[in-house]
Specification:
The protein is an alpha/beta fold. 41% of the residues lie in helices and 19% in strands. InterPro entries: PA_dom_sf (IPR046450), PA_domain (IPR003137), Peptidase_M28 (IPR007484), Peptidase_M28B (IPR039373).
């Protein structure tokens, strides 16, 4: 275990983490982006960074934002009933008297749920879940012609004590929109209701009687100046390189486990690490993003756009801290970029002596850095499968995004474990001479998916050469891993170490966007975008092409798109091979 971690571990305190979380909650409970408390919270966090000895600032940025105003929901057929609701944000406001629409129950609200259902001009009832995430449910609903969406919260059936309404945003477009994506913001009205109200409406829809509802919803849509704090802890050997430790500061009121506890974890880590700054080799940037919940990762996306060069050249990785210390959580769960999965798994086992199954990271939360190719890690104590099943998918607790996300939803033992694991990962990452990226898992994953795609793809799209080059890359990775072992004892300032670390970053930058997103490095897929969940999203269009009539206009248009996507993937892979050839040659020829 890294010596720095052993030094700070004894001073990592769940009580201190709780104290910071409590202060945020009690002094700035309404941290919804643009409503005032979010700015006060950002200024307070920045002042704490400064107090700890970090350089700090409050970043002001402009975001296409939304705030809730009011809503009402009434059943008007086959019976009369008023249902409590909250307005979803980033929706089309209705006139005050509302709109009368037929209601259709859709379950999760994924594409498959729309089969043989006509929702044009109607409202859809969907259940809150991450299959897909709520913004994607809204995008699909709008695409299918629905004019309104009712979001039924998760929770345990027939449990009145845990039956509350959650706050939701339906923007879908990731970060600030562009001329191309502005039109993709769902033109749909939306309200949120409790789990029991959702069950009532679901049963009504299943009764084979026509269900009519009146939906009234008002929210703002505006360009707002938002604030977010950042603290810089400078390293001593290679200070230009940095690890990004981040989580969101905006929250639905009162937002304790989403995300006052995460902010408290960031503050606690910054405080303790600052006491040992002289032993830290690389820099650490601590950031609490704004615009996460409603503006869909606006703050982190803005940061990518406006700090592109620094991130591209010097960001060695990121650890996202969200929803730490949750009540009822029983097991540590972690997702990570494939190239750091083994690194993270080994550290977690050292800290808690448990063999955790680290899963591959997909783009969610504030993973605005995913496409740029910044390796990232997300971990926290999580709920059991039994709990999630019993509460109909509440993997962040039945209270998530409700007024009941208060201080009694914190478990200090879980908070301590989250603190210690995060600290161990950070210390090992910033003080490693050779960066921990290992692309063997990445290559094996790509190879498996390519083999499956080739069997299903339209034969007109040439993919076998890409598979050949992935296997060639695997050979280079074996050489790189052997060089890493020989260089581990050298300092990060050593020229060979600097070369191999630069190569590792180049590989992350080249491979991630091409094989795991549906756009290039400079754009952002929309939130939980369905095409981006396919195996090798850009190449999967060749599989979809095989299911089209080759004489149709649809085929001919998609064929051109599929060819270009194939070329994007092939070019990124060939660039990765060139980097391997060049850097390994330089490393082998360098004379110490």
């Amino acid at each position: 275990m890294e010596k720095l971690y052993e030094e700070i571990r004894k001073d990592l305190s769940a009580d201190k983490n709780y104290e910071y979380s409590e202060w945020l909650t009690e002094h700035y409970p309404r941290r919804i982006s643009g409503m005032g408390d979010d700015r006060k919270a950002a200024e307070w966090v920045a002042s704490k960074f400064k107090e700890f000895g970090l350089e700090s600032e409050v970043i002001n940025f402009e975001a296409y934002n939304s705030n809730p105003v009011s809503s009402s929901l009434k059943v008007i057929q086959p019976e009369l009933k008023e249902i409590d609701s909250l307005p979803c944000c980033h929706v089309e406001s209705t006139r005050k008297e509302g709109i009368n629409v037929e209601l259709v129950y859709l379950g999760a609200g994924d594409y498959d749920d729309y089969m043989e259902k006509d929702v044009k001009g109607k409202a859809v009832l969907v259940e809150v879940s991450y299959s897909p995430a709520t913004p994607e449910k809204a995008r699909i609903a709008a695409e299918k012609g629905a004019v309104a969406m009712i979001c039924a919260n998760w929770g345990e059936d027939e449990n009145e004590e845990e039956d509350y309404i959650c706050g939701r945003g339906l923007k879908s477009v990731w970060g600030n929109p562009t001329p191309e994506t502005f039109k993709d913001i769902p033109k749909i009205s939306g309200v949120s209701i409790s789990h029991s109200a959702g069950t009532y409406l679901k049963n009504l829809c299943k009764s084979e009687k026509k269900v009519l509802v009146n939906i009234s919803v008002q929210c703002t849509r505006s360009w707002d100046i938002l604030a977010m704090p950042i603290g810089y802890l400078r390293g001593n050997e290679v200070p230009e390189e940095f690890l990004l430790v981040n989580g969101h500061i905006d929250a639905w009121e009162p937002g304790v486990t989403c995300n006052a506890t995460g902010n408290g974890t960031i503050l606690t880590l910054a405080e303790q690490l600052a006491k040992h700054q002289d032993k830290i080799k690389r820099s650490i940037y601590f950031v609490c993003w704004n615009g996460h919940e409603i503006a869909e990762s606006a703050g982190s996306t803005w940061y990518v756009d406006h700090h592109w060069d620094e991130l591209d050249e010097n960001c060695i990785g990121g650890i996202n801290i969200d929803s730490t210390g949750m009540l009822h959580a029983v097991q540590y769960e972690c997702t990570a970029s494939r190239e750091v999965m083994k690194f993270v798994k080994d550290i977690i086992k050292e800290v808690v002596n448990e063999d955790i199954n680290v899963l591959p990271l997909n783009k969610f939360g504030d993973q605005s850095f995913f496409g740029i190719g910044v390796p990232s890690i997300v971990g926290r104590m999580g709920m059991s499968e039994e709990y999630i099943k019993r509460t109909n998918g509440a993997n962040l607790g039945w209270w998530n995004h409700t007024i009941k996300d208060d201080l009694n939803k914190v478990d200090k033992n879980n908070l301590q474990k989250d603190l210690e694991i995060s600290a161990a990962i950070i210390c090992s990452y910033v003080n490693a001479s050779v960066l921990p990226q290992d692309f063997l898992i990445t290559c094996e994953d790509i190879e498996t998916k390519l083999t499956e795609i080739i069997d299903k793809a339209d034969p007109k799209i040439e993919i076998k050469s890409i598979l050949y080059n992935v296997r060639k890359l695997k050979g280079y990775i074996a050489i790189i891993n052997s060089r890493k072992i020989s260089l581990n004892s050298k300092p990060p300032t050593d020229n060979k170490v600097k070369l191999i670390n630069e190569l590792l970053l180049k590989l992350s930058r080249s491979l991630t966007w091409a094989f795991y997103t549906y756009c290039d490095r400079f754009e952002q897929n929309s939130y939980a975008y369905t095409p981006a969940t396919k195996p090798i999203p850009l190449l999967y269009s060749a599989v979809e092409l095989a299911n089209m009539d080759p004489t149709s206009l649809e085929y001919k248009l998609h064929y051109t798109s599929a060819v270009r996507n194939r070329n994007r993937v092939s070019t990124a892979l060939r660039e990765a091979l060139k980097y391997c050839e060049l850097y390994l040659t330089l490393i082998d020829q360098w004379i110490d």
